[in-house]
Amino acid sequence: MAKISKISKLESIPTDTSGSTRIEKELLKMKQLLAGKQKSMLKTVESAGFSCLMCGKCCERAEDDNSVYLLPDEIEKIEASGFLRENFILPLLPDFYETENETAIFKESTFIDMLHSLSEQTDEEGRIHTFGWMLQRNDDGSCIFLNSDSKKCMIYEARPALCRTYPFFTDESGVLKCECEGLGSIEKTEPILANELTKALQERVLSDHTDYIQTSVAIKNIYDKFEFNNETARIRFNENLIKNIVSFVVYDSTGVYEVEFNIDQ
């Protein structure tokens, strides 16, 4: 599995007072929208009859993509638990695991093919530009923080919101459910848990919305400085690849980062 060898900050997100006003207005709209949906969201969670079976399958890549998107404050919380970010984060990428005999497996060839598919996001230095971060996974697709023996999370108190709210997630239509054996395991989700999950879902929507607005408002001028998907970009990318190096430029609401991978680690 490829590992990060270097993370460096290229630019901080500049302060934009006009952008701050827009963010405040957008967040107020979102809060009002969520307030109107609170009862229906709670009802969906309650009626799902969810109880965690502590099986750890949600942390494994048992059936489908189990990528976990990370916000900057979630990365900081995990770091505060005693882990270096370069040991648990990746640039946000499409799924690059294969499934063989119902088992996930990492293949370097599949990973490289996925990188080549991102040519439209590759600049003249051969760096792939992406927006946001995700948790690293093991070669079998399981979360890097899943204890393989106990099937317990090693960062349970600092786990990301996506994990806290599983198997529930939201889109424009409301609350949706993932495949999970804990759904329907009891008649009705316990009231305390249902309220906690609903609150966490709403907080996640607000956090995602805030991060998206802050990032999109602030990085436009930075992103537009680069030239993408030309012959120079392809040559530089392949030159780096021969050296077993892949470089990324990652944007989030705190800044712009350059990330270097060693594929042969």
From TrEMBL:
InterPro entries linked to this entry: Puta_zinc/iron-chelating_dom (IPR005358)
Q: Name one Pfam family in it.
A: CxxCxxCC
This one is known as Uncharacterized protein
